[in-house]
Amino acid sequence: MEEKTGRTNTVLTKLSVVGDLLMLQLVFVVISLGILTIFPAAFAMQRVVPDAISQDRPKLMRRFFREFRWAMKRFWLPGFGLWTGGLMLAFGISFWAYADGPARIFALAVLIPLTGLILGLYLSGLAILPDAPETATMKTLFRSANLFLLRRPLPVAGGVVVLLTWFALASQVPTLFLVGSGLVPALTAYTLARPRREKTSEDVSI
């Protein structure tokens, strides 16, 4: 009986986590329609995702909007710059992918690695955001993200591959943007930020 109750509680907890994450995604989509609010909304989501997963803190939406106001005051202008730069990179890659001549190869050889680097820095920035102080600025976040990337280049590269794969799928199935445009980067960065579990004697087989 106790085992059955424990399983029921586990299932209910997981459903609660899924519900909270989907609610955050819905709010993110609505807020992001303002364009200037896309990155502040993404930053706010990243700050509360650990709470949604752990279920440690109630009133998740209240905290999300508090974090959104914080991010909007500090990061709306750099966020707009990121959005503009991302749009230019996407246009540049799309243009040169269908162009002809040797310049196409050179342009793509520059733009594709540059895009991967920017995505890696973005994921690293999201990964360190939950622990960033209230006084954080874009400059301090960039430094911390760069340090995170240098310390964990391979996991971040894997995160970039996940993100690019999801973008490729979403380009074919646009409805995926509604359910994952904020959650996929947030959960990828959350996974990157989790401390690596140390091996114990139980992990070693004889």
UniProtKB/TrEMBL annotation:
Instruction: Classify the source by domain of life.
Output: Bacteria
- Keyword presence, Cytoplasm: no
Keyword tags: Membrane, Transmembrane, Transmembrane helix
Does the record bear Membrane in its keywords? Answer: yes
Q: Transmembrane stretches, by residue range?
A: 22-45, 75-99, 105-129, 149-169, 175-193
InterPro entries, per database record = DUF624
Q: What Pfam families does the record tag this protein with?
A: DUF624
In Swiss-Prot or TrEMBL terms, this protein is called Putative membrane protein YesL
